[in-house]
């Protein structure tokens, strides 16, 4: 079901593999968010990861960076299997940004970048408390590196500003600078242009190219298709947790399954089609059972009603017979005979009156 094509750039095709994710699967109880995804990123390459909302892109990122421990599969960085601990993944050489900005808002811009240097400094608690020559030298080196990164992203003039006072686009830049402070070999960007205008998007695009030119591989999630297809050497498409297709921008754009997935149109062999069919069959079976139960309950209610009406009719007949018997005992004749006697008396009286006349 997955289609893979080689990139046209010979440089990246022959470059060493930086990231190798093999058979990554992530389940949350009965929900499979990511299913058997394979992905590689080479040195000096920019790879895009796209898909509709809920496709499992950020979950896959979290599996790569140790925030989630994959249910199945493994993630390797430069041939070494990564431990499922975020700080160890960062120490190994993978840094990331987040879909929602996660800066220390009450710290300065420079301090935020310095936080990203913690995996590259050797000083411990006692060194920090005693503040000896070694600590001061390391701190000066970290500040120098942090200022270089701020210059690189265009924020050197705002080093002493509080992070919360920066405009949205500059906060995104600061988050990238903080990630770069750990000197990664692979940078993961989760929707870096979300909420940006066209000018800010172009600036971010230039920044990512500049990062790649520094020898840092980039894996980026983005919903802006114009941005992603212009930026990336290869693009992989996730749909319902499965990798649907991988290749160049031209290959992905021309794949009918990708268009159908974004438009919500079903297609043959779509991920989750079997599960959907099972659910529909189960729903139809449940509806049939409910209808059968309703019919049985209605029939039972009808039988009960008829059974209740039969004793009532019998009681009414018995009451009528009892009344007739009482009337015969009192008047010597049934109550139905009274009108006949009255008619006979009237006829006799009329005859007597005629004779007298």
From TrEMBL:
Residues 300-329 have a biased composition (Acidic residues). Keywords: ATP-binding, Nucleotide-binding, Transport. One of its GO terms (molecular function) is ATP binding. Residues 281-357 are annotated as: Disordered. Residues 19-265 form the ABC transporter domain. PROSITE patterns: ABC_TRANSPORTER_2. PANTHER family: AMINO ACID ABC TRANSPORTER ATP-BINDING PROTEIN (PTHR45772:SF7), CONSERVED COMPONENT OF ABC TRANSPORTER FOR NATURAL AMINO ACIDS-RELATED (PTHR45772). This is ABC transporter ATP-binding protein. It comes from Streptomyces roseicoloratus.
